Input
Amino acid sequence: WRDAAAAARSARRTVTAEAKSRLGRDELEPGANAAVGRGRDWGRAVHRVLEARGRGRTGEALVRFAHAVAADGGVEDAGQLLELVARLEAGGRWAGGLDALVEAPLMVAREEEGTVLVREGIIDAARRTPEGWEVLDWKTDLASGDGQDARTAAYRAQVETYARLLAVLTGEAAAGRLVPLGRE
Output
């Protein structure tokens, strides 16, 4: 009875860790894709500003926030952060409005072979469409058409997992889409 009581009855997996394990840790480390990305600080700054915009910051409030994020995160040009937001909005690659989620945590638990498996992650953004939810995953270390097959495949699996989790939680259809934000 002691061995049975000591046996693990639950396991936790993050969607991001699963993506990293698909490629091997080195390929997703900072600097591994320097030709496209600008590093971890840039990626964090982008996500923070996109989250602020998605939560309703606009105009001068967004400008001040972007400058504060840039200063806090070691990013040189807040203007580039704001240009990125403007490009996303102009290009239709934006998730905003009342039927949108931004930096939304997801967690689903299910039993597998006597163990409760908890899968969790944080989706960058999702928006409702007539077909269901569209999960958007901002990737600052991918550029449109950069041809990085292994990295793109791992990230695509990641966003598709987020979509499946959201579908389970909402009972609605969901599809994932990568949004490359690397140097264009």
